[in-house]
Amino acid sequence: MFKRSFHSKDRAGKSVKPSKRSFSDRQKLKLQQKLGSPPVGSTLTSPIITLVVGREPRIFAAHEDVLSLSPFFTAALKGQFYESSAKRVALPDEDPQVFSCVLEYLYKGDYYPRLVFNKRHASFQLEDQDPSNLGGRGCVESTVDIPGAGGALLKDTVVYCAAERYGLDELKRLALRKQGLQSGIAVDVILRSARFAYENTPDSDSKLRAHYLALIIRSRKTFKRSGTMQMEMEIGGSKFFDLFVAMCNHVDDIVDIGNNRSPKTI
C-alpha cells in the first residue's frame, strides 16, 4: 500500500504563539460552499432532529439540512435508527465527546481547538496552545477517553475515524492536519491511537495510517527503547507489516540518494 517513504509534511509541528484570529469569513464561506452548507449569517429553517448519543445517552439537537451534509445521516434519517414521529436518531455506539466535535464542524467548518492563523509565521496553528492566548476556552486537551480503548487516545485520530464513518472527507483532512500540529505526545498514547486508527479505518486508508507509520520511523530511537512498543509488536496486527514495508521503502530511498552520489548497493 505504501510505495514511497514519507515526507516532512507528516511531521508534527512545534507550538508557537498564535494570533487570536481564526479562519477568515472568506475562508469559512469557501469551506461551507464546498460542503454545500448555508452561508454564514443565513437562517436555517429545516426541522430540528434530536440525536440520542452514547450508552449513557446525551441529547443533541441539529437541523436536518445540516445533518444531511453527511451521507451517513442522509441515510439514517430514512433508516432504522430514525423515529419519524419524534424526529429522533439513536446513536448508541457513538461517543458524545466525539460527536460534539462532528456537530461543531458541520455548523462552523471547524471544531475546538480551531485552526488560527499566525501572521508572524504565516501559518496555521491550534488556538489556545499558548497560555498567553486568553481568547479561547483555556488549555488545549489533545486526548480523549473512549470507553473500551484502554486509555487516552489522540482526539484528532478519533475525530478522523468518526469522519470516516459519516462520509465527511473534508473533516478527515482537517483532523489529520490538526494532529500534525501536536507534539510531546507519550509513546503509549501514540501506539494506542495507532491501534485505534487501524481498527476503525478501512484497509484502503493511506492517510491516517501513513501518518502513524511516518511518526514511528522518524522517532525510531524513542520507539525501539519503548517497552510499550515491544508489547504492541508481540500482540501483533497488520500495522506492523505496514511499518516493515514503510521502513524498507525508507531505506530504499536513502540508498537511492546515496547511489546518485556514489553508486553502491546494500
Topology:
Blueprint: H1 25-35, E1 48-53, E2 58-63, H2 64-67, H3 71-76, E3 82-83, E4 88-91, H4 96-108, E5 115-118, E6 123-126, E7 143-145, E8 152-154, H5 155-166, H6 169-179, H7 187-199, H8 208-218, H9 220-223, H10 227-235, H11 238-261
Helix pairs in contact: 4-5, 5-6, 8-11
Give a short summary of the structure.
By secondary structure, the chain is of the alpha+beta class. It is built from eleven helices and eight strands.
The total of helices stands at 11
Count the E strands. Answer: 8
> How can the largest sheet be summarized?
4 strands, mixed
Query: What gap, in angstroms, lies between the N and C termini?
Result: 24 Å
**Globular, elongated, flat, extended or rod-shaped: what is the shape?**
globular
- Indicate the structural class: alpha+beta
Low-pLDDT sequence parts: 1-25, 31-42, 133-139
Helix coverage percent of residues?
40-55%
- Multimerization state: single chain
Please list the strands of the largest sheet in the order they lie side by side.
2-1-4-3
Q: Sketch the topology as an H/E string, one letter per element.
A: HEEHHEEHEEEEHHHHHHH
Task: Indicate the proportion of strand residues.
Answer: 5-15%
Mean pLDDT: 76
Which radius of gyration do the C-alpha atoms yield? Answer: 21 Å
